[in-house]
Amino acid sequence: MHIQFAELPVADQDRAKQFYVDALGCEVAADTPMGPDGWRWIELRLPGAVTNLHFLRQDTRPSDAPVLVLVDDDVRGTVAALRARGVEIITEPAEAPWQPGRIVAEFRDSEGNRMVIGSP
Hints:
Blueprint: E1 2-6, E2 8-10, H1 13-22, E3 27-33, E4 40-45, E5 52-57, E6 68-71, H2 75-84, E7 89-96, E8 99-108, E9 114-118
Parallel strand pairs: 2-5, 6-9
Antiparallel strand pairs: 1-6, 3-4, 4-5, 7-8, 8-9
């Protein structure tokens, strides 16, 4: 699995960190205090990925537009694994209407952000 695009607004860093570690198998690359208000610099990495994820402080409600697009060879298998971990699946794996042959599905992270997972 690799990241195509990432911007991750979060309200609760601990909850988000736990979600990305437990549900997506991310590794913690950094978790360091940033100031007196308790906010931390957190970077997460998908195993084998070059790109790290970083949490932005969320000051408004989660976006209705996808904030993360993951690319995976086995969308159906990954969605089944996410569901088994209690992740909210928004749309089941199906062929993308804009790209015949590409399978996509959508889910939400712990912060309510909409995510897409699609085949290459």
